[in-house]
Specification:
Blueprint: H1 2-27, E1 54-60, H2 64-68, E2 74-80, E3 87-93, E4 96-97, E5 103-106, E6 110-113, H3 119-132, E7 140-145, E8 149-154, E9 160-163, H4 171-177, E10 185-196, E11 199-205, E12 225-230, H5 232-263
Parallel strand pairs: 8-12
Antiparallel strand pairs: 1-4, 1-7, 2-3, 5-6, 8-9, 10-11, 10-12
Subcellular location: Cell outer membrane
Keywords: Cell outer membrane, Ion transport, Lipoprotein, Membrane, Palmitate, Polysaccharide transport, Porin, Signal, Sugar transport, Transmembrane, Transmembrane beta strand, Transmembrane helix, Transport
Protein name: Periplasmic protein involved in polysaccharide export, contains SLBB domain of b-grasp fold
């Protein structure tokens, strides 16, 4: 009997180890990346300006009065705190909204086609134009995106829309902002929804594969949406909960019908 118990114990141990390996393969990221893995970054990941982008364009000079005419005013607004009831004030520079044709209307320079440019390219263009037209001799032009945001939905711990302050954010960065995937999220089927060239594109990415790092969707762009699908376990739980709800409703309805029969009998 003792031998049989040992035998069953060994079998149970092996099954637990195998189950642990299987679950690790399902949830580990970049599983096929060897130690000291290096990959040359060959793609251009600089953000390009798109229609509906909101740009902050600031011009500075040794002569502040000359530069001031090119800068939009700063507005103040109040943010109420639901806990304390105190409304704190914040300042924000108004921005230039890129229209549907990809243009902005800049003081003295008129309409500028900015769609497809990077921040650096537009900065150089405006600086050169100000000098060539004799408007500012020594301009310092600073450009920032004011509405760069990405949304993360589905099986993550903190779904939501996140404002990005830098020019680069990767898919892994976005998932980190959302608190990482829950145990029920599909690592092998992450959806990225992107609008580009007048089309809405949906791609699937596998967090477990090193090919993720070379994907053109590894670096996110303005207004990208990341969706993490639930795995079969979570889907099964929802189905069970739905069936339980239907069963509970049916039971309540049956009791109500029985009471009605007794009352009006």
């Amino acid at each position: 009997m003792i031998k049989n118990m040992k035998k069953y114990g060994y079998i149970a141990f092996v099954l637990c180890v195998l189950a642990g390996c299987a679950s690790q393969k399902q949830i580990s990221y970049l599983q096929d990346v060897p130690d000291d893995y290096r990959q040359k970054i060959t793609q251009d990941y600089d953000l390009r300006i798109h229609p509906d982008d909101l740009l902050s364009i600031m011009v500075n000079s040794k002569d502040p009065e000359l530069a001031q005419m090119f800068n939009l005013p700063m507005v103040s607004y109040q943010i109420a705190n639901s806990n304390t009831g105190y409304a704190g004030g914040q300042n924000r520079v108004l921005g230039y909204l890129v229209d549907k044709e990809g243009n902005i209307d800049f003081p003295q320079l008129g309409v500028i086609k900015v769609q497809g440019m990077t921040r650096a390219e537009l900065t150089k263009y405006i600086k050169n134009q100000l000098i060539e037209k004799g408007l500012v001799k020594d301009p310092i032009v600073t450009i920032q995106f004011l509405n760069f945001k990405v949304s993360v939905l589905g099986e993550v711990n903190r779904p939501g829309t996140f404002e990005i302050t830098s020019d680069r954010i990767t898919l892994l960065d976005a998932l980190s902002l959302a608190g990482d995937l829950t145990i029920y999220g599909q690592r092998e089927n992450i959806k990225v929804v992107r609008e580009e060239n007048g089309e809405r594109v949906v791609v699937s990415l596998d967090l477990r594969n090193k090919d993720l790092l070379s994907s053109p969707y590894y670096y996110l762009q303005q207004n990208d949406v990341v969706y993490v699908e639930p795995n079969k376990v979570k889907a099964g739980q929802r189905e069970i909960n739905q069936n339980r709800t239907i069963g509970t409703f049916a039971s309540i309805l049956s009791v109500m019908v029985s009471l009605a029969v007794l009352i009006f009998k």
